Amino acid sequence: MTITRFLTAILLLASSGVTAQVGFGPMLGIGVATMKFAPSLDPIHYTAGTASPILGGMVGGVLDVPMNKHLSFQSGIGLSRKGAVRSFSYYYNDSFNESVHQVLHIAYADVPLMVFYKTGVQGQGRFTAGIGATLSYIVGGRNLLQDHSVVNDTLTNTSDNVKIMTGATILGFDVGLTVVAGYELPTGLFFRAYYTDGNKDIGTGTEIDKNRAFGITAGYIFGKGRNINKEASDLIDNTPDPGK
């Protein structure tokens, strides 16, 4: 299934819950981010390359649309930090080689489109699990760069700290598959673990860059029309006893 068909399926499922009362609230998370990375120059002369994690996280709001007692559609908007620490080098000969150390801190605006399954009933604590797509676009970030090169037997060391430029450093738009698991309290407070696997190559030229992010979040959902007493009364058989 392509990512486009997957998004279409999520939106069709969401449309079935439009008559339900919508929940909303804040969400905050912390985690780590890294990249699947392959540099772009001549692979014959590529000698080494690594990508290691940076501290990541997110802050934003969540929108919850119940579709039935166990399924809900969730979306929202947030800001997240992704990126990686990258080191790579090339060797052509003693007079022409290069070593690069790069730290990418990328700020994204995220819009998740997800379907959640929730055990139990509303008004009681229950486990949750969700799957969906996260659409992201770069809104800022920094590229910290250290370059050590030898050209014509001349050694050059440069350092720079520049703004992330969409289309130059990396492409601006990203989409990833997100899976989530957690627990929701009767009050609306929830805790989750998440993992987002970048589906789109955001590298420029022949360079390959795909985001990876995982971590934990906490949040609170208001306005779901919770009525714990009503939920409890629904579990009681109110049918009149014919013997009375």
What does this molecule look like?
- This protein has a single domain (3-18, 38-234), classed as Porin.
- Helix content is 8%, strand content 63%.
- It is built from two helices and ten strands.
- It has helices at 3-15, 228-234; strands at 23-38, 46-52, 54-66, 71-93, 96-118, 126-151, 154-163, 173-184, 189-198, 208-220.
- A hairpin with a 2-residue loop joins strand 4 (71-93) and strand 5 (96-118).
- The model is unreliable at 225-237 (pLDDT under 50).
Write the layout of secondary structure elements.
Elements: H1 3-15, E1 23-38, E2 46-52, E3 54-66, E4 71-93, E5 96-118, E6 126-151, E7 154-163, E8 173-184, E9 189-198, E10 208-220, H2 228-234
Gyration radius, rounded:
24 Å
Q: In what range is the share of β-strand residues?
A: over 45%
> How far from one another are the termini?
59 Å
Structural class: mainly beta
Considering DSSP H and I runs of 4 or more, what fraction of the residues is helical?
A: under 10%
Largest sheet: 8 strands, antiparallel, barrel
Number of helices: 2
Q: What brief labels describe this structure?
A:
single chain; Porin; 8-stranded antiparallel β-barrel; 8% helix
Summarize the structure.
This protein has a single domain (3-18, 38-234), classed as Porin (Beta Barrel). Helices cover 8% and strands 63% of the residues. It has 2 helices and 10 strands, in the order H-E-E-E-E-E-E-E-E-E-E-H.
